[in-house]
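hey so u asked for the seq, here:
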Amino acid sequence: MDSHHSTPSSSVSFVDPDQYHAAIRGGDHLLSFLERGEFRAEVTTIEVGRVMLQRGYENLPRLSSTGMPPNKIGILGWFGDSELPIVRGVQMRRGDWMTLGPGMQSHHRSPGPIHFVTLTLDADNLAQAAVDMVGHEVPVVAGQVLRPPEHLSAWVLSVIEAGIHATETAPGIFTSPQAAAALEHALLRSLIMSLEGEVRKENIPHCRRSIMVKRFEEAVEANFDNPLLIPDLCRIVGVSGRTLRTLCQEQLGVSPQRFLALRRLHLARRALLHADQHSATVTEIATSLGVWEMGRFAAAYKSQFGESPSATLRRPSGILTQPVSDPRKILARSA
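ran it, structure tokens below
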């Protein structure tokens, strides 16, 4: 398949988690819970031919639920000295890469500031590139943890850093077909070699538990305009209350009740930030999300976000993204 080499690179900073998630285009971020604090994130994106390279930073502890499109594959890794996340209930270790399979859905729990990198492309493009480079297709199983040899992992990161460094020192370099083709080839080869490395397999029961928690999340999303009771959600998911508590603690790091409370608070904040402050009211927005005890809601909201719901509603709307003047700031960030 022919490559196309016309998409430029970009580096953008964010203070709105929804806009940040929308910028990570290898997958779809379905929801995110943040610890209290001012959110900051930065993403550098380079698209060369068939491959998208993204390197990013986020500053707050976070629980997120993500889904890959049905035609996309890739790998996800972490770098720097920060503590690594728990993904699909599995603690990642230094040197781990996770495969991102078509349609894969998962939960990520990061303990604080974190740096990540992803390589993604269409599944058909990977299959063709693998045949061209190594003579056969390479398997991509959603959620597998790869442990390439240390020298291979170092080589993959060096290729990625070289691409990022090129955009820093020579903006627009990858509008050149020759430069784009060279980086695309290097990224494809490093991706394919990583996929053929050692695998730390996810056992079947563990995978099933992740699927059941996704079913719980879907039941929550589908019923937010109704009273949400844990026994009703247990019946929808098909598990006992005790099992649901165990599943949520393992996969989400919180109880089912806490998950419901956090999801409602974050949905309320999103609605307040985007509402017309001249016509909308806090009560109207809160009740649309099933909130009836306004005093308790206001106290929980202020505890979570550091301001009252009415203060959020009064915030002036503005641009919540901006270019990063120096992409190397991503590496320099700390807690």
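Residues 150-169 form the longest helix (20 residues). The radius of gyration is 21 Å.
lmk if thats what u needed
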